[in-house]
Amino acid sequence: xNKYKKIIISLLCDAAGYVSIFFPPFDFVWAPLSAYIMTKxxxxxxxxxxxxxxxxxxxxxxxxxxxxxxxxxIYTYILKNDKEKRPLD
Length: 89
Prior knowledge:
This protein is mainly α. It has helices spanning 3-17, 19-22, 26-41, 44-59, 68-85. The chain is elongated, with a radius of gyration of 14 Å. The termini are far apart.
């Protein structure tokens, strides 16, 4: 999957997380589902760590405003790539 499809899915998943602000029982369904989706979008150890963060963020009240999926996309395609392009100090 290319990075542009992932950012669209990430934005949609972050928007879905905002539903629980208005309908709190949605967290019972969305927290584990968001963790599962995160592991499928982002493979390896970073994806697993992000899945745990996503689960905790969605399960705890008042943290739903954090755009976890979008932050993971930024880390994967912007920050991580910058680190790889920098010469060793």
